[in-house]
Design goal:
Number of helices: 7
Radius of gyration: 16 Å
Number of strands: 14
CATH architecture: 4-Layer Sandwich
Largest sheet: 6 strands, mixed
């Protein structure tokens, strides 16, 4: 399994190229402002990228989607509950002049909790983990979780941005959907370094350690 994290942009966002070494098929997760670097890494990888799947649709995670769609000729998938966040993208771009080039991408299809997205011989299981936004999803591929802006190393996502609900829903979603996965599962977040489920259950200050001992 190929995992390549490309970090960049004003918000230091992580985009992931995930590929199957057997078939050399791959997907993009959350292509942001650093789209030139992302496309360069795609070319170097030798992967055939077949789709974009976004964890959510805040500006920093979606800024490069339309460019990637046009350059690679691939479809774009999100959770339907996050469509309203995407629809507000033009308003978000007005607040950040450096994003004036961003075009709101069309969505070719929606993924739902329980869906299985094929990446060659790999399977990405879709989990709905709301809180940071209404339709925020995580992708679980083997023992790797692509968590977007739900769970970070030592922190969790904000709930005061577009589509955010409450800290209670976010932490409850993490506990119900992510903390029930094995401790050795890797967490690849939308910002910052990777971590593991076990580390976050034991040391993340947004959760009570006694609940997982």
């Amino acid at each position: 399994m190929i995992i390549n994290c490309i970090t960049g942009g004003a918000f230091i966002e992580n985009c992931y190229i995930v590929g199957d070494e057997k078939t050399m098929e791959g997907i993009l997760i959350d292509p942001g402002e650093q789209i030139d670097d992302i496309l360069s890494e795609v070319e170097k990888s030798g992967l055939t990228i077949t789709k974009i799947v976004n964890t959510h649709n805040h500006l920093d995670h979606v800024a490069g989607v339309e460019i990637a769609k046009q350059k690679l000729g691939i479809p774009f998938y999100i959770h339907k509950k996050d469509q309203p966040v995407l629809d507000l993208l033009p308003e978000a771009c007005k607040r950040w002049p450096q994003y004036s080039y961003v075009v709101k991408p069309d969505v070719e299809g929606y993924v739902e909790e329980g869906d299985k997205v094929e990446i060659g011989s790999l399977i990405a299981d879709i989990l709905l983990v709301p809180g940071h936004s209404w339709g925020h999803i995580c992708l679980v591929i083997e023992d790797n979780i692509f968590a977007g802006d739900t769970l970070f190393a030592g922190s969790v996502g904000r709930v005061d941005l577009t589509g955010g609900t409450s800290m209670e829903e976010l932490t409850g979603s993490i506990e119900a959907k992510l903390f029930t996965l094995p401790d050795n599962y890797n967490v690849f977040p939308g910002h910052g370094p990777a971590t593991t489920i076990g580390i976050e259950k034991q040391s993340n200050p947004f959760f009570r350690r006694s609940s997982y001992s």
